[in-house]
Structure formats: C-alpha cells, structure tokens
UniProtKB/TrEMBL annotation:
Protein name according to UniProt: alpha-1,2-Mannosidase
Cofactor: Ca(2+)
Signal peptide: 1-24
Upper classification of the organism: Eukaryota, Metazoa, Chordata, Craniata, Vertebrata
Residues engaged in binding Ca(2+): T478
BP GO annotations: carbohydrate metabolic process; endoplasmic reticulum mannose trimming; positive regulation of retrograde protein transport, ER to cytosol; response to unfolded protein
Catalytic residues of the enzyme: E120 (proton donor), D261, E354 (proton donor), E375
Record gene name: Edem2
Predominant cellular place of this UniProt entry's protein: endoplasmic reticulum
C-alpha cells in the first residue's frame, strides 16, 4: 500500500494496554491461535465499517465515523464503495458484489469539475474497477460476450484512466500530481510531483492496455518509469519530489518510504505481471543502492540522494510494505529481520506511528497518528505465505485486538490521531476496507481463492479464443486490488484477422518478388497481443522486449513468437522507420 499523497493521519498507544493474550513470540501459543475465530472477527470488522458507510456516508467518498456522516476526499465518486468492492468477493459476498456493480454503473460519473490526485485516482478507482471487472464472472455477474476484453467496469476504468492522461503531457513524460477531471491540467498547476506519484501506474495502465488493445496507457506509464530511472543520482538513488518540467529534484531525501515507496513496488510487480526483465533489473540496481546507503541493522533510514549522508533516522509506517516486497523477490531472511524490527514498534504502541525516531525509540512530534494503515499487515500476509511462521499470525492477532480496542466506534472505525493517548480523528480512509481488512482476512484465510496455487482454474471462451483465468498468482496493486496476470493474455485479436494480414503480406512480397519466405501459421505462440491494425504493429510494446535486428531470422520462424512480433520485424511493409 502506498501514498505520500495520503493525508498523514494519526497515532496509537498500546504500552498502556497489555493485551490479554499469550505474549508474542510464544510459538506454541500462536500455533494454538484460533485462526478461524480471528477470521470471523475480521469479517465482522469489515461489515461494521461497510454497513455504516452505506448507511451514513454513501454516496460521499468516505465515512466520518465520529459524526456518522460522509465527506468527499479524493474526488467525488463514492470512493469507499469502489475500494471495498473486491474485498466483498474475498469475503465471499457475491450478492452484495453484484448489487454494488449495478450501483456503480448507474451512479458514478467522471465528467465532473473536480481536481483529483492522479496517483490516488489511479490506484483506488482505476485499480478497484479493473480488479472488480476481472473478478465479476467469479462473483456471478452476467458478463458480456467479449468479457474480459470488454464490460461496463472495464469501460469505467478506461474512462477514469483517460481523464488522467493529460497529466502525462510534459516534456519529461513524468505526470503532474493533480488533474481536473473536466478540464485537464489546471493552468498554474505545480510541476512538483513525488516519485511514487510518477512511478505507480504500470500495473493498472498495462492491464488496461492489454485488455482494451489501446497501447497509450502502458506507453505513458513506461515512459514515466524510465524518466525516473534516467534521473537517478550517480550513487543510484532517487529523491522524494521532482519537477516534471525540468527534471530537477526538489526534495533530495532518498529512502523507501512516503513519496517513493510504490515506485519500487511497481518495478517488482510490473516485472512479475508483464514478465519484464528490464523492470526487474532496474529494481535490483536500486535494491543494491538502498542496501548500501540506507540500510542499518535491518532498519532503513533516509539519506541525501547525491551524497548518501543520513538526513533522517526515521522509520515511517508506510515503509512497512518493504518486507513484503522483499519476499516477492525471494529475499525472505532479510524481509523477516526487518519485519521483526517493525513489529517491535507495533507492540510498543498498538499500531505504527506515522514516524518513529529510531535512535530515540519514540514517536516524532505531530506524527503520532495511525490511520489504520495496512502496510505491516500486508507484509505479514506475504511472509506468512512464504514461511508459515506463527509470529506473523500474532501480528494479525495484535492488529485485530488493538484496532477493535482503540479505534472502534459506533459508526465504524476511526483514524487514531495519537497513539500515546488514543485520541481519535473523524476519518475512516477508504484503504481501511480496501487493504487493511483484506490483508488481515487473507492472513487468516489460507484457503481463499486468492491464494490459489494454480491447481484449479477457469477456462473462458472469448472471441479471441480460450484463455485461463483465476489460476492464482494475483498481483495486488498498491491499494490491494488483485489483478489476475493471466487476463493480460486473453485479449488478442481473432485468428482470422491475423490470417488476413499474413495473406496481404504474402501478396505484397510476391508482387515485389524481393524475398521469398513463408510465415508459419502459429496461432497461439506468444504472450503479446496482435495489434488492432497493421500500423500498430511496429510500436508493439506489450511487456516483451523487442528483439534486436540480429535476432530477426529467429523471429520469423520461431513458434514461440506471437504474430505481431513478426510484423514488427517486417515492419518496413507498413513503416519505414523500423
């Protein structure tokens, strides 16, 4: 879960509140921890918050739990409903999922004069709609004939994403942080955007491009990622905020937390989703620099991006996603050590303060709050899948106990303004239902369909042939919206259209009498999508690295290449700049 742009909320204090449970670390006690009963408590937690949102806050973005009313925060699109939709299915509630899909189709409009965060709208709205679209058949929704390559939720996701595209029209390709959904980028808009607000698009935008066949989304997301990479410092670090017009770093603090976090996360998740070696090698380079300059005793500090000198010896609650990310690249031992450091902070306060001074071992002034963030629970969920270490279930137990004890009010769950005295704030962020509750539930539900290891799956017949879905391997966006990576390979164009283009090319070459060759009719031989029309072919960028000229002979005959890769090599048929 990410977001510098999330309002820095509030804070929790459990040292005064010794929980009536076995002490942490007692493995036997944890093994005896009643996973099923905690799972049910998490379910009850979800409905307590969700039902009060519907009752008191809908159609506003968020519930205000202390006054039992609602407010618009990130736009005006019933944000909590979109964010909570896939959680409903993970909890097994298909009827409410179906009802909400209908409500959203009728009630949500993006043609509004609202200034929206490009980053938040992408991760919460586009991500939430894409995930719900891909899960809708599983949830018993009557889907269109062309699903998953078409459908009302996909059209809504695409419409929302199109509203964000004007932000990317900058000299560097790095987007503005704010866009007006009706008018585009406001004149006088600040050109300073945080790193995460530039590098957190590839998961949603590549998914959109693969499903809709429009490459523009993936293209702008890649361009933004690469611009950040190009502007890293000589010692391999990126700062916190950059000017998207001049590419000058405005905030030069380098670390893994707020303002940077999900950029690193999306290099890894983008690499997995798209099977893209380039994105992974970028991350691994950053990972080396992060270890060299920011890591001390399994803590991560903030350093000056050019010199590597420590600027803030602070742990931020948002950084708690890092052990989960390390587990995704297989670095489980380091992940576990860092996780245990962060868990000691949780045990000190009954939550993670937004900032924690590592040398002093205490909160930082004005940053004592805990807005019910998911990051530590997210890491526990990943690490539990990897290790089955019962300590991870204990963190889940502690989270349930302290959120219920400190944060629960009559109308939902309130942000904790101060972890030292348990004062509350009148806000329940949408990520509480999208992420915190979801990761807790998945930690306590080992048999959930999300954890599928590929042993069961659905075969879906699309107009483009058969494809496999729901086989597992879901990639969570940074708002915990699961994307099925197999879906990205469902929406190639029809085989007949491929044959037509091949026949055209045969004719063309027999007229020219220049070269003699045959194109093998290998229909299902690659991961890329065939282009919508021939002109699109040469700019094919669907996550596969384009092979260099010297490999062109193998491209023509190799059955593992999709048809449009062949077109890209023979691109001079359509374009002369190949």
């Amino acid at each position: 879960g990410a977001a510098m742009l999330r309002s820095l909320g509030s804070f929790l204090c459990l040292w005064a509140l010794r929980l009536p449970v076995a002490p942490a670390g007692s493995g036997a006690a944890a093994r005896g921890l009643d996973v099923a009963s905690y799972r049910e408590r998490v379910r009850a937690m979800f409905y307590h918050a969700y039902e009060h949102y519907l009752e008191s806050a809908f159609p506003y973005d968020e519930l205000r739990p202390l006054t039992c009313d609602g407010q618009d925060t990130w736009g005006s699109f019933s944000l909590t409903l979109i964010d909570a939709l896939d959680t409903l299915l993970i909890l097994g509630n298909v009827s409410e999922f179906q009802r909400v899909v209908n409500v959203l189709q009728e009630g949500v409009d993006f043609d509004i004069d609202v200034n929206a965060s490009v980053f938040e709208t992408n991760i919460r709205v586009v991500g939430g709609l894409l995930s719900a679209h891909l899960l809708s058949k599983k949830a018993g929704v009557e889907v269109e004939a062309g699903w998953p390559c078409s459908g009302p939720l996909l059209r809504m996701a695409e419409e929302a994403a199109r509203k964000l595209l004007p932000a990317f029209q900058t000299p560097t390709g790095m987007p503005y942080g704010t866009v007006n959904l009706l008018h585009g980028v406001n004149p006088g808009e600040t050109p300073v955007t945080c790193t995460a607000g530039i590098g957190t698009f590839i998961v949603e935008f590549a998914t959109l491009s693969h499903l809709t066949g429009d490459p523009v989304f993936e293209d702008v997301a890649r361009k933004a990622l690469k611009a950040l990479w190009k502007n890293r410092s000589d010692i391999g670090l990126v700062g916190n905020h950059i000017d998207v017009i001049t590419a000058k770093w405005v905030a030069q603090d380098a670390g893994i937390g707020a303002g940077v976090d999900s950029y690193f996360e999306y290099l890894v998740k983008g690499a997995i989703l798209l099977q893209d070696k380039e994105l992974m090698s970028m991350f691994l380079e950053y990972n080396k620099a992060i270890k060299n300059y920011t890591k001390f005793d399994d803590w991560y500090l903030w350093v000056q991006m050019y010199k590597g000198t420590v600027s803030m010896p602070v742990f931020q609650s948002l950084e708690a996603y890092w052990p989960g990310l390390q587990s995704l690249i297989g670095d489980v031992d380091n992940a576990m050590r860092t996780f245990l450091n962060y868990y000691t902070v949780w045990k000190q306060f009954g939550g993670l303060p937004e900032f924690y001074n590592i040398p002093q071992g205490y909160t930082v002034d004005k940053r004592e709050g805990y807005p019910l963030r998911p990051e530590l629970i997210e890491s526990a969920m990943y690490l539990y899948r990897a290790t089955r270490d019962p300590t991870l279930l204990e963190l889940g137990r502690d989270a349930v106990e302290s959120i219920e004890k400190i944060s629960k009010v009559d109308c939902g769950f309130a942000t904790i303004k101060d972890l030292r005295d348990h004062r509350l704030d009148n806000r329940m962020e949408s990520f509480f239902l999208a992420e915190t509750v979801k990761y807790l539930y998945l930690l306590f539900d080992p048999d959930n369909f999300i954890h599928n290891d590929g042993s069961v799956f659905d075969v879906v017949t699309t107009p483009y042939g058969e494809c496999v879905l729901n086989a597992g391997g879901f990639v969570f966006n940074t708002e915990a919206h699961p994307i099925d990576p197999a879906a990205l390979h469902c929406c190639r164009k029809r085989k007949e259209e491929q044959w037509e283009v091949e026949d055209l090319m045969r004719e063309f070459y027999s007229l020219k009498k220049t070269k003699k060759f045959t194109l093998k009719r290998t229909s299902d031989c690659g991961e890329g999508e065939s282009p919508k029309d021939p002109e699109d072919a040469p700019s094919e960028k669907s996550g596969e690295k384009r092979n260099s000229k010297k490999n062109s002979h193998s491209l023509l005959s190799c059955p593992s290449q999709s048809f449009n890769s062949k077109l890209a090599v023979l691109g001079q048929v359509f374009l002369d700049n190949t």
